[in-house]
From TrEMBL:
Keyword Glycoprotein in annotation: no
Signal sequence region: none
Record carries keyword Disulfide bond: no
A Pfam family this chain is assigned to: Phage_integrase
GO MF entry, a single one: DNA binding
Annotated protein name in UniProt: Integrase
């Protein structure tokens, strides 16, 4: 199959393709590949034969790379690309079949592996939830249907309405560590949702999501890897992407769940008092407040937030166009702008994991940083109850009982304990 539609090329570009093939492979080789004699090929080059058959040019395109064809047809040059230019390229690809074939070939040749690695996120829409509600009500007993609906609302809210393999796996393991029965029910609902709703929208991704976790049968003991502060510092120092670097920093120094950090808004960070105001509470988790070390707050204020604001400013127009072109996806522009991490989670994870492999020779789950935080603080002498408070491990009911009857502690005292015992990467 030819890489381009030669019917839309003028005679000059057709001739350039033939000359480039001869320059690259030699006259004799090209003559054999085209199944024409050398004298005929020379007459094409010398202009003695004005009209070059399309089938000859098509065969020549197979002897050249996409990059070489680009140089001939479009003029290969490097320029500053802004979102408006990128969006114009997409529009041209939609409207121009010849350019679209060329463009897709080029993308997959140079970015195919990257596209495969990052296309693993599914955004749950209101339409998805409505369709799931209709499905379970029509196919399940009333009690079972109500259970699935209650579960999927809780699951999607906890996951920030974004499904990725890693986030689902960590979510189910977190539930399983506290209540294996609840984890089993939630996993059953999630598999049903993926099978009946996500599969119809994205069959390839649905298989990846479906296979990323198992329905817990018994409470198994998971042993997180032994991590050291020195190795985590090495990983941190080697991460070049500022978004991924900052995410890793907060995960190590707060011990919060990945979803909790990814769902943070900028206005939940009080840099003056070095407080993270999660204010999250549900039936299984309490994640109310956490803190920042002084150097981390300084990095956020002086380096990360300016980078965040510039990123939002640069891509806001593109996101607005994307939202307008896909109204059913429920893209909330203001929510995206307000997020502390307005980036794709899977891309950040990939960049972090790449550095894990370089430093450690293997990877570990980002969720394991939560275990590291707890063990680090306990080994340094922190009160286990304070660690539970900081990580939101106590349920709301247990927290109120402890606070009201057994252990009264102020936010200032919590921060003092955090400053004294929590791990530092900076």
């Amino acid at each position: 199959m030819p890489k381009i539609d030669v019917n839309k090329l003028d005679d000059e570009k057709k001739l350039k393709i033939i000359k480039k093939a001869i320059e690259k492979h030699g006259l004799s080789y090209v003559s054999r590949q085209l199944e024409i004699n050398r004298s005929t090929l020379n007459r094409y080059i010398n202009g003695k034969i004005q009209t070059i058959p399309n089938e000859v040019v098509e065969k020549c395109t197979e002897l050249l790379t996409i990059e070489e064809l680009s140089d001939i047809i479009y003029g290969l040059r490097t320029v500053e690309i802004d979102p408006t230019i990128a969006f114009s390229v997409i529009i041209k690809a939609i409207r121009d079949e010849s350019f679209r074939n060329f463009f897709i070939n080029l993308i997959w040749q140079y970015l195919g592996d990257y596209l495969k690695s990052v296309s693993n996120s599914y955004i749950v829409s209101k339409e998805d939830l409505d369709l799931f509600e209709k499905f379970v009500k029509n196919n399940k007993a009333k009690r079972t249907a109500n259970m699935h609906l209650q579960n999927i609302r809780r699951i999607t809210a906890d996951l920030g309405y974004e499904l990725t393999s890693e986030r689902i796996k960590e979510y189910i393991l977190d539930l399983q560590s506290k209540n294996v029965n609840k984890a089993r029910h939630y996993a059953t609902t999630l598999k049903l949702f993926i099978k009946e709703i996500v599969k119809s929208r994205n069959p390839i991704l649905s298989r990846e999501l479906y296979d990323s976790f198992k329905i817990p049968k018994t409470k198994t003991l998971y042993r997180p890897p032994i991590l050291t502060l020195d190795s985590l510092k090495q990983i941190f120092q080697n991460i070049n992407d500022l978004g991924a670097k900052t995410l890793f920093l907060l995960l190590v120094e707060t011990g919060l769940r990945v979803g909790e950090v990814m769902n943070l808004r900028v206005d939940q960070i009080d840099l003056d008092h070095r407080i993270i105001k999660l204010m999250k509470e549900n039936e299984t988790k309490r994640a109310y407040i956490s803190f920042l070390h002084e150097k981390t707050a300084k990095l956020l204020r002086e380096t990360y937030l300016p980078y965040h604001d510039e990123f939002v400013r640069k891509y806001e127009n593109s996101v607005r166009k994307l939202a307008a072109a896909n109204p059913n996806q429920g893209i909330d522009i203001e929510n995206w702008k307000a997020k502390l991490f307005p980036f794709r989670e899977d891309i950040l994870r990939t960049k972090i994991e790449n550095e894990m492999r370089k430093i450690l020779g293997s990877t570990f789950r980002l969720y394991d940083l939560r275990s590291f935080f707890a063990s680090y603080m306990l080994k340094r002498g922190a009160n286990p109850m304070i660690v539970d408070f900081l990580q939101g491990r106590a349920s709301p009911k247990d927290f109120r009982i402890l606070q009201n009857h057994y252990f009264v502690i102020s936010e200032i005292e919590l921060q003092q304990n955090y400053d004294k015992y929590a791990p530092k990467l900076l």
